[in-house]
Design a protein that fits this description.
Length: 164
């Protein structure tokens, strides 16, 4: 077997990101439907729109760098989505379920922040300027989503859930 290059690692992780985002586009509508807090529901719906854009960016990177984006399954995202489904199936009071949904969503965001942070660094090192720009845009969206979830949890949802 031939030794693999940094480009090979980058391509593998682009494929992982693509799988993660496409899985998330299927999970976010379910999470939005399960959310009872209107701001949380709207946040999930907004992030679905962003995620669809992130999928298109990854497809663009794949096309530009000759990376077949559909050839890998992100098992980490599959596990994180499974945990969110578990929370939705616990029969929790609505405010408590919203707190659990925020926690599940933040696990996803933290995974994505780590993934896109590495991809941005690697794209820069490899000289993939356009890919770096596109990946950085996604990284910033993921960070903003995480911040919004934190604010919502701290300002409303966690207090309401704990009062139950």
């Amino acid at each position: 077997m031939a030794a693999k290059s940094m480009h090979d690692l980058f391509a593998d992780q682009i494929q992982d990101a693509y799988s993660a985002e496409t899985q998330l586009t299927k999970a976010l509508p379910k999470m939005a439907k399960a959310a009872t807090n209107p701001e949380l529901r709207a946040g999930f719906e907004q992030h679905l729109t962003e995620t669809e854009g992130q999928v298109r960016r990854l497809e663009q990177i794949g096309k530009e760098l000759n990376i077949k984006v559909t050839s890998k399954k992100c098992e980490a995202m599959e596990g994180l989505i499974s945990e969110a489904k578990d929370i939705m199936g616990l029969g929790l009071e609505s405010d408590v379920q919203d707190a659990g949904l925020i926690a599940a969503a933040q696990k996803v965001e933290h995974y994505e922040i780590a993934l896109y942070g590495c991809l941005c660094t690697w794209a820069k090192r490899l000289g993939y300027t356009n890919a770096q720009t596109l990946l950085h845009q996604t990284l910033e969206e993921e960070k903003r989503t995480d911040e919004k979830l934190t604010r919502l949890a701290e300002a409303q949802v966690n207090m309401q859930a704990a009062a139950r």
